[in-house]
Amino acid sequence: MKIWLDGTLRDAEGARVSVLDHGLTVGDGVFETLKAVHGQAFALTRHLDRLAVSARGLGLPEPDLDEVRRACEAVLTANPMPYGRLRITYTGGLSPLGSDRGTAGPTLVVALGEAQRLPDSTAVVTVPWVRNERGALTGLKSTSYAENVMALARAHERGASEALFGNTVGALCEGTGSNVFVVLDGALYTPPLASGCLAGITRALVAEWAGAEEAELPLDVLDRADEVFLTSTLRDVQGVHAIDGRLLPGAPGPVTAKARRIFTERAAADPDP
Ligand code: PMP
C-alpha cells in the first residue's frame, strides 16, 4: 500500500508522522473521506473545496489544492482496487507540546483503504449528547471526532450502525458520520446547516436531485416520520429500519428508494458533480 506524505508517495509501512504532530497531540486537523470506484474518486472537487473551508475555519495554512488533487490521483493509481475509501488528513503539523501550533507547517497525508458496499437499510439509535450548533468547530470536518467515536460505539453496543445527535435546542441534527433526511406526509426534509450538521456532500446532491427542503425538525419527528434515511459518502442513501429498537416496517420506503435510485444514476453519470 502506497500513501502520500510530505510531498511524495511512500510505502504505508515505513511512513511516519512525528509524535509531536498537532493532529495527534490535540486533534488539530481536518480531513475528508471520499469514495473511490475503480480508481475514480467521486466528487473530488467538492471534497477539496470542503477541505479548504475546514482548514480556513481552523486557521490552518491554506492547503495547496493542486497538490492534494495530485496526491489523491497518485495514491489511487498506485493502489488499484474496485471500491475504496480515500482519506485526506491535513493537520497543524509538528508543534511544541501544548495547544499553540508550531511553525513547521501542516502535515498532509492521503491514504486509501478497501471499503465495502453497505446494506440499503440499517438501524440507528439516538444519543443524549448534543451537537453545539454554535461551536467553533461546527460545520468543519475537524479530526476531533472523539464524540462521534463514543456515540458510534454506543450504537454498535445496541446493534445499530449509526447514532443520531440532536442539538442544544432539541432539534434533529445529524449522525456521527452521516446526514439525516425524514419523510413527512410525502415531503422530504433535512435539517439546515444552522442545526450544526456538516455540509455533507451526499446531503447536498440528494437534496438537489431528489428535491428536499431544509427544515428545523424537533427530535421527536423521528417518532412520526413516514421514512427516515441517512446520507454519506460511504452509505450513499441508506434507509433506516429501526430507531432505538423500534421497527419501521417497510423500510426502505418508496421515497427513500427513489432518492437512492436517483442518486445512484446521477452519480454514475457524473463522477465530479
Ligand atoms: N456528518 C458528519 C459528522 C460526517 O462525518 C459525515 C461524513 N463525512 C457526514 C455528515 C456526511 O458527509 P458526506 O456526505 O460528505 O460524506
TrEMBL record:
Q: Name one Pfam family in it.
A: Aminotran_4
Question: For bias kind Basic and acidic residues, which ranges apply?
Answer: 263-273
Catalysed reactions, as listed in the record: 4-amino-4-deoxychorismate = 4-aminobenzoate + pyruvate + H(+)
Concerning SUPFAM superfamilies, the annotation shows:
D-aminoacid aminotransferase-like PLP-dependent enzymes
Q: Which CDD domains match?
A: ADCL_like
Cofactor(s) required for function per UniProt: pyridoxal 5'-phosphate
Q: Which one of the record's GO molecular function terms can you name? A: lyase activity
Pathway the protein takes part in:
Cofactor biosynthesis; tetrahydrofolate biosynthesis; 4-aminobenzoate from chorismate: step 2/2
Q: What is its EC number?
A: 4.1.3.38
Record key words, sorted: Folate biosynthesis, Lyase, Pyridoxal phosphate
**Lyase listed as a keyword:** yes
How it assembles, according to the record, is:
Homodimer.
For this chain, the family text in UniProt reads: Belongs to the class-IV pyridoxal-phosphate-dependent aminotransferase family.
**Protein's recorded name:** aminodeoxychorismate lyase
